[in-house]
Amino acid sequence: MSVIVKICGLSTEETLDAALDAGVDMVGFVFFPKSPRAVSIERAAALAARARGRAEIVALTVDMDDAGLAAIVDTVKPDWLQLHGGESVARVAEIRQRFGLKVMKALGIRSAEDIAGVPAYAEVADRLLLDAKPPKGAAHPGGNGVTFDWHLLDALDPGLSYMLSGGLDADNVAEALALTRPFGIDASSGVESAPGIKDPARIRAFIAAIRGFRPTADQGRTIAGERISS
Ligand SMILES: O=C(O)c1ccccc1N[C@@H]1O[C@H](COP(=O)(O)O)[C@@H](O)[C@H]1O
């Protein structure tokens, strides 16, 4: 099974088309007002309509209440809700139940302690996204373009499925893939020319780097399949 690719924070037709034409699997729209990638619900709905059937549509939210989530779900009609804040295990389960959509929970990783908290979320989320913890004082919990020590993921149960993000770009994604075993890869700032400005050439190069990655024999790498919670 090949690694799936998500490009997050798209906001224009041109860059959305570049990702779709390059074979992206998931496209993400950011509903976090402080982000340079934030889009209105109406803008996201138009972009989602353009992408539907070609890639899965992800609505990225941060500690959003039910009314805000309902407005996005009703108008954008995403396939996934990405929860990128401090949502508790119980809140993730509640959102999944209430909206009847697949839920991807993003978890920030900086230390071994952060790894210890991952399995509980695997019980309630349809997918996990392991991202770098934001630098101290960062204005948003993701999209900061920073990597983390990928070796920390060695401590995870090999059967646990996850997507990887955090500072990934065309230059470092092969190394990340060689050291980890993600189900999918997600990037935002690494495919931009400036914060919030996606770059079609960088999107193409990033997806080509992932599609062209071949593990060496001694890496003996396996990709864990999806773990769908019941
Ligand atoms: O992209 C954002 O602006 C954003 C804002 C708030 C929460 C999450 C956000 N992005 C997510 O973070 C990952 C990693 O970003 P990057 O590649 O390091 O820039 C990104 O893929 C989004 O899922």
From TrEMBL:
Keyword Zinc included in the entry's annotation: no
Protein name: N-(5'-phosphoribosyl)anthranilate isomerase
Gene designation: trpF
GO biological process: one example: L-tryptophan biosynthetic process
Molecular function via GO: phosphoribosylanthranilate isomerase activity
Class of the enzyme per the UniProt entry, highest EC level: isomerase
Domain N-(5'phosphoribosyl) anthranilate isomerase (PRAI): 5-208
CDD domains in the cross-refs: PRAI
PANTHER family: N-(5'-PHOSPHORIBOSYL)ANTHRANILATE ISOMERASE
